Amino acid sequence: MRDIWFEVRYLMMAPFTLALLVQFAVLMWIQRRVPKPLLYLFYPAAAVFLVEDFIYQVVVGTFLFLDRPRDVLFTGRLKRLDAQDPADYQVWRFKRVLNALDPGHV
Q1: CA dist., res. 52 & res. 73, Å (int)
Q2: Whose CA is closest to 45, among 61, 26, 58, 59?
Q3: In sequence order, what are the residues at sequence separation of 6 or more whose Cβ sits closer than 8 angstroms to the Cβ of residue 73?
Q4: Rounded to whole angstroms, how far apart are CA atoms 73 and 68?
């Protein structure tokens, strides 16, 4: 039953998750494709993403996992929860997607 309520919360937050996921995918693409000397041009976009990720972690992450925020970024929360229970479906859902975009991210 726990997984069902997680899915309901996940679907409610899907627009926010999708927006952050698209930004993450673009930043990972830039990191792999743009020559190192030009990466500094994208630092403002990365800074905006980090602020959005912090807000997502505090608001959406707390709602999704029903766990108070203890980490600065969402990846930190996922790593902490994954260390507690590597078979957790809720973490696996995010881990699978993020690691597909950036291998070893979580």
Answers
A1: 9
A2: 26
A3: 50, 53, 54, 57
A4: 13
Nearest Cα residue to 97 out of 106, 86, 84, 87: 106
What global pTM score does this model have?
0.89
| Residue with the two structure tokens 């069902």 | 4
Per-residue pLDDT of the chain (106 residues; tens, 9 = 90+): 678 999 999 999 999 999 999 999 999 999 999 999 999 999 999 999 999 999 999 999 999 999 999 999 999 999 999 999 998 899 999 999 999 999 999 9
CA 49-30-13 angle, 5° bins: 35
- Could you tell me what percentage of the chain is helix, strand and coil, using 3-state DSSP and rounding each to the nearest 5? 80, 0, 20
